[in-house]
């Protein structure tokens, strides 16, 4: 796109109405303002203005990646099956992977992320410790057959990602590469003008900073993160843990209660007049065909996604009526852990040793009270799988956590030797012996960042870009006929000559009203209007964000904008 782009020559068709299928603000506005068009579900075409924004983001990402010494490469998106089969991801990815075959019937995939291929490239290129550390990156199209490709470019099935990979001989080296990426990401997102938080993406139990996400708070976000209002703790709710604290105190013997027709926690709590939190809910699931029970307080929900992650790569399903056939030990609706000898029992840390519960008595219509963890039943494994709720205690300081919605825009990850082990990636060490390489992987959703920025900066009138990513820095509007158009073009040329990226609305036969509406919708941060006082050489300068406007001479306006 030229430095000075005339709208009369720009392919753009803005829309007055929101597209019918759009749910999120960024989706609606990016379509209405003519940045993107849907080609198929989760597959998007980038039109001139959208491509500009995408390129601006890519440029910033490139500059900051180059600044930490990462080298840009471009690997294929069309990949052979074998490396993904060796790593296990050909199976693990399941339906998320786009798979295809060539004319000979050989299997291929469209790359969802490239750890395997980068490992092989480095194995081919680097043989000595002297060749390391090395950091490689690419900005490339990725493919994932997402289950719910909604929200426009926020979650595409085809999307742009910057992915980078670090290769080091030592753990300290990996930590340094990780730190460099973390800092580069902070610079990138600051330059993009994104409001973001760095949150822990792994549970505390798995250790520190091995994986962090960069989240952009926004209502349209599909991630929820927990934020401590008191200390520096912030984590994806998928990673929040609850401390296991054994309880003290005496409890009477187990007592059976008559509780007819109370197969659910709600009916039970009402029948007994106790809070749901006093009851123990035992959820039964099938893990690779075997029945497993998960105990959580009756007022809490089990997050099946978290449970699945915890038990991965096993397949987790809910039990059905059929699974109870022939299982006298499992009384549907009245299960209690004190009678579950043949079933593996997982529990939330709130079901700590010494806590007493009202739970199923393993008999139809009966429950039991004073059922004490560690005394009347054993927990095989404690797992953090309840849905985190607002007010849950901060794992670091105990203050009630606040929950917020956000968009994951980046993810940094200390992989360690997982892929190096798979592909035997060794280099010759200082002592002449082979050393196994350790890796990190780091992603930024470049196309998703466009949507995240749109979400965070838009208002009732339309988009509103930060200057560095905007498709132009100044939008000059000719609000009138020949005279105004002449002045607008002249000012546009002067600004362009001074190095600014300018959009000039010189369209003939389009009313000033429509031009103003379009300018607000397109969201260039500064709008300059050549209007009623053009004959006197006076223009109006308007800040898209604040709406502040000022009349200035052309000289003053040009001086101000090029200062
Ligand atoms: P999500 O949880 O949103 O599906 P992810 O954790 O699977 O994302 P990563 O594998 O960490 O994603 O990919 C790196 C980055 O690529 C993400 O942080 C995100 O910004 C971006 N990204 C991932 N999936 C998509 C998608 N379907 N559309 C657009 N961007 C995506
Ligand atoms: Mg991620």
Automatic annotation (TrEMBL):
Family annotation (PROSITE patterns): AA_TRNA_LIGASE_II
Q: Which EC number(s) does the record attach to this protein?
A: 6.1.1.15
**Could you say which enzyme class this protein belongs to?**
ligase
Question: Localized where?
Answer: Cytoplasm
Entry keyword annotation includes Aminoacyl-tRNA synthetase: yes
Indicate where this protein is primarily found.
cytoplasm
Q: How does it assemble?
A: Homodimer.
Similarity comment: family membership: Belongs to the class-II aminoacyl-tRNA synthetase family. ProS type 1 subfamily.
What's the stated role of this polypeptide?
Catalyzes the attachment of proline to tRNA(Pro) in a two-step reaction: proline is first activated by ATP to form Pro-AMP and then transferred to the acceptor end of tRNA(Pro). As ProRS can inadvertently accommodate and process non-cognate amino acids such as alanine and cysteine, to avoid such errors it has two additional distinct editing activities against alanine. One activity is designated as 'pretransfer' editing and involves the tRNA(Pro)-independent hydrolysis of activated Ala-AMP.
Q: What is this protein called?
A: Proline--tRNA ligase
Q: Which organism is it from?
A: Streptomyces physcomitrii
Gene name tied to this protein: proS
């Amino acid at each position: 796109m030229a430095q000075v782009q005339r709208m009369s020559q720009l392919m753009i068709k803005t829309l007055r109405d929101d597209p019918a299928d759009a749910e999120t603000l960024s989706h609606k506005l990016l379509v209405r303002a003519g940045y993107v068009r849907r080609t198929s579900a989760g597959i998007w075409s980038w039109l001139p203005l959208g491509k500009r924004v995408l390129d601006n983001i890519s440029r910033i990402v490139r500059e900051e990646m180059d600044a930490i010494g990462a080298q840009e490469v471009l690997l294929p998106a069309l990949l052979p099956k074998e490396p993904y089969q060796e790593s296990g991801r050909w199976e693990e990815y399941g339906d998320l992977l786009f798979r295809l075959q060539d004319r000979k019937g050989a299997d291929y995939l469209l790359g969802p992320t490239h750890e395997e291929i980068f490992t092989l490239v480095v194995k081919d290129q680097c043989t000595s410790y002297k060749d390391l550390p090395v950091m490689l990156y690419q900005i490339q199209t990725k493919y994932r057959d997402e289950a719910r490709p909604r929200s426009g470019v926020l979650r595409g099935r085809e999307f742009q990602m910057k992915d980078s990979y670090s290769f080091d001989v030592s753990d300290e080296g990996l930590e340094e590469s990780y730190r460099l990426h973390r800092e580069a990401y902070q610079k990138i997102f600051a330059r993009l003008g994104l409001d973001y938080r760095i949150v822990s993406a792994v549970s505390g139990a798995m250790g520190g900073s091995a994986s962090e996400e960069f989240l952009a708070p926004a209502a349209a976000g599909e991630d929820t993160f927990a934020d401590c209002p008191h200390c520096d703790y912030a984590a994806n709710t998928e990673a929040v843990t609850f401390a296991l604290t054994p309880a003290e105190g005496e409890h009477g013997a187990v007592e059976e209660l008559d509780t007819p027709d109370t197969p659910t926690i709600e009916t039970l709590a009402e029948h007994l007049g106790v809070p749901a939190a006093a009851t123990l809910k035992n959820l039964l699931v099938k893990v690779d065909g075997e029945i497993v029970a998960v105990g959580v307080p009756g007022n809490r929900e089990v997050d099946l996604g978290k449970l699945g992650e915890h038990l991965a790569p096993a397949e987790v399903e809910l039990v059905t009526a059929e699974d109870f056939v022939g299982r006298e030990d499992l009384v549907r609706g009245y299960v209690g852990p004190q009678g579950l000898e043949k079933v593996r029992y997982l529990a939330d840390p709130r079901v700590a040793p010494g806590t007493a519960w009202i739970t199923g008595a393993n008999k139809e219509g009966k429950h039991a009270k004073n059922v004490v963890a560690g005394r009347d039943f054993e927990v095989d494994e404690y797992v953090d799988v309840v849905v985190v709720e607002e007010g849950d205690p901060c794992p670091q300081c105990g203050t009630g956590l606040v929950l917020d919605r956000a968009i994951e825009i980046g993810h940094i990850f200390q992989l360690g030797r997982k892929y190096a082990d798979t592909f035997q990636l060794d280099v010759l060490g200082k002592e002449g012996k082979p050393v196994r390489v350790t890796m990190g992987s780091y992603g930024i959703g470049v196309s998703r960042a466009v949507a995240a920025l749109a979400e965070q900066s838009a208002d009732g009138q339309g988009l509103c870009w930060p200057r560095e990513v905007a498709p132009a820095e100044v939008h000059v509007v000719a609000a009138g006929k020949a005279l105004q158009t002449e002045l607008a073009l002249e000012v546009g040329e002067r600004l362009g000559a001074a190095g600014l990226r300018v959009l000039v609305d010189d369209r003939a036969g389009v009313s000033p009203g429509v031009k103003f509406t379009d300018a607000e919708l397109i969201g260039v941060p500064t709008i300059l209007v050549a209007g009623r006082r053009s004959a006197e050489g006076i223009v109006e300068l308007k800040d898209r964000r604040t709406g502040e406007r000022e009349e200035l001479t052309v000289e003053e306006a040009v001086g101000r904008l090029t200062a």
